[in-house]
Every structure is written in C-alpha cells, then in structure tokens.
Amino acid sequence: MLLLRNLSQVVTMKGGGVPRTGGAMSDLGVIENGAILVHGGRIVWVGPTRDVPAREPGVHWQTVDGLGLDLVALPGFIDPHTHPLLSAPKPESRQDPSGPAESDGDRGNALHTAAQNQNLAKAERCVRLFLAHGTTTIEAKSVAGAGLDEGIRSLQVLAALRERSRLEIHPTFLCAPAAPGAETGTRLEQVQQTIRTALPRLAREGLARFCDCLVDSAHYDIEEARAILQAAAAAGLGIRVHAEESGPGTGARLAVETGAASADHLQWIDDAGIEALSRSGTVATLLPATASHLGGLEPAPARRLIDAGVPVALATGFYPGSCHTLNMQLVVALAVTRMGMTPEEAITAATVNAACSLGIADRVGTLEADRQADIVLMNVGHYREIATFFGVNHCVVTVKNGNVVIDRLEHL
C-alpha cells in the first residue's frame, strides 16, 4: 500500500473519463488537505487526510507525508503529441576501410544494432526527463519524411523503448511525403505503398496505435490524406491529423470526417473548422510551445475553441529538431499566458482531455477510486502556481502504476 497524505490540495479531475468542454473545464474537483491510498497499482481511496481508512493489522504502508510542505497532487500529465526520435537507425552503412574484413551481412547487422542502441539511449534520457517533469504517458510519433522504411524502423525503436521504460508510450505512424532526393518513388507511389503495405503491417505487428497525416500545402493534400486515413481506419488504427499548422486549410474538417481522435496544431483554423469540431468527438490538441519556439508564431485560438464547446487538450510537441521542451508544466503556463486559457482549463487540457485524445481516459487522467495510480506531486502551495510560477520544475514525486519512479522530496 502507498499512502500520500497531508497534501495541500488533491486535484482529482473527478467526473470519469469523458472529455470536458466549456465551463466543465474549470471544475477540477479539488480536495483541500487531501490524501490518496494506492494498492496494486490502482487508486483505492481519495479524500481528506482526516478520513484516511484505518490500516489493517499486518499490512505495510509506504507513506509520503506532506505535513509542513507545500505539495499539490495532480493526475500524471499526459502528453498527446511528441516526436521523441530525430531519426531511425539505418540498416547498413559504409565499411571503415581501416577495420577488419567482415561480411556485408555481419557488418550491416552490427552497425544497425549500434545505431539502434544509440537511438535508444537518447530516447531513454528523454523518458527520464518526461517522468522527472511529471509526465506519465506520451504519444510518440514515428520519423517521417525519409520514406516508409525509416518510419517503420523508428516504430521498432519505440517498441523496444516501451519494453524497458516506466513511461507509458502510445506509438503513432506519422505519414508525410518523403523529402526531395529520397529514393521512394512518386507521391502517388508513396501513398499506394503506405495504404497497401505499411498500414496493414503496422496493424498486424502492433507497431502503432494511431496513424497521423501532415495535411497542408507542403505535405499531403486533402485527397491524399483522406485515402491514407480511411485505409488506416480500415486497418484498425486510430486517426490523428496535423491540421492548419502552417496556413489555412480543411484539415480539421477532414479529421472530423474520418473520425479522428485528435486534430493537432490548428493555428490557422477557421470558423467552419471550429464548428465542425464542436459537433464531433474529435479533440483539439494545441501546442503553444511549438508556436513559441518557431519564432513567436501566433498560437491556436484556444479561447474560441473552448467557447464553442470543443474539447481542448495540450501537448508539448517535443521534437529534437524544432521544439526543445518536454515539460508540460511550461505548456500549461504558455496556454495561460499566450492562449488566454485559465489555469483550470489548462490543467484539464493537460490531464483528462489529453487522455481522451488517446482513448485512455477510462483509466488515467483523473484521481479517482479504481483508476490507475499515475500521480504527480508538485511543490507548490496552490495548483494555480503551476501556471503562474513558470520556468522551474515543480515536480518532486512521480508515481506510475503505483510505483514511485521519481522522488526528490529529500531535496526540499
């Protein structure tokens, strides 16, 4: 048993695994001076510290006591849009002429294994940083733009990472036309190969849960993306869409049409796109850190989306090549300072609504009895400080599946 007690606040997000919209995004279900009891990886009780159930004789309790400290408990952050791999390992490379002679097969296998291990080591460092900043679940996209083979290899790296990581990882196959110069055939051939070969294989081997398409003038057009996404859905994959990121378009409406779990970015979404999202079950996943990192671009219109009744989630958009943050605390702060969200709305968007965008809100995203024990403790006196006191890491304890995986209490 794990007992967390004498917590200044417990932000429960009570209400079950349904997306929160409008005014419901401001109801955090806060318990003052609260406690949480965990057993077998699940939450068994949440309430005021004074009402903690009596300990049964002979049962050992590991206790984290916040008495005299400023500790606020939240559901572990869920980051529903990340690109944790910069590239995938190549299956072969040129031989070093100074090295010993060996067969092409042996050399290629050895180099591939070394590259994969190096990529894994980099990704594992990111995993530790996610957990250290209070994120317990992420969506992770494959490498895109260098051909289908590299995309599949990157998903294999993510599969290896999932096996050895405490962080929960939901893999997504990201579809984008290959960069000029890649030996991948014409765009039509790439689309056909994706539909006929890649998607069935990914579904069959369980390498991806979702398929995502980059839909804009520089990547796939609406017809190409529609064909890929419909094939992905037919193969049993969930749908996600990069929409209206770099200019006006109809990606959000395509996301609704294809039953997407999430439409992401949306900096350029128009009224028709917002209306379509408001009438659907598609979550709008916004990435304020990406907009900030890429030269102060205007962020997505979060206020208009929320006021229209669209469920809004937040994500880091972490990518080693363009958005160098994996800190959801910073994203919550940027959502407030740059997108006009309230701290309550931003916390909802980073927890239960993010869980809804990944289809996992039946077990994570709230702190309620019989939910998975994914819990973070922030060293703040009030949950609103997460949004207002930014630029530092407030997370001091991270609990994943009932196990304490980060513990910095001794440093307080």
Number of domains: 2
Number of E-state strands: 16
Topology pattern, helix = H, strand = E: EEEEEEHEHEHEHEHEHEHHEHHHEHEE
Profile the largest sheet: 8 strands, mixed
Q: Any idea what the CATH architecture of the largest domain is?
A: Alpha-Beta Barrel
- What's the total helix number? 12
Task: Assign the CATH topology of the largest domain.
Answer: TIM Barrel
Residue-averaged pLDDT:
91
Detail the poorly predicted runs. Answer: 92-112
Estimated structural class:
alpha/beta
Rg value:
22 Å
Highest CATH level, the class of the largest domain: Alpha Beta
CATH homologous superfamily placement of the largest domain? Metal-dependent hydrolases
Strand content: 15-25%
Q: What is the overall silhouette?
A: globular
Relative helix content: 25-40%
Head-to-tail CA distance between termini: 24 Å
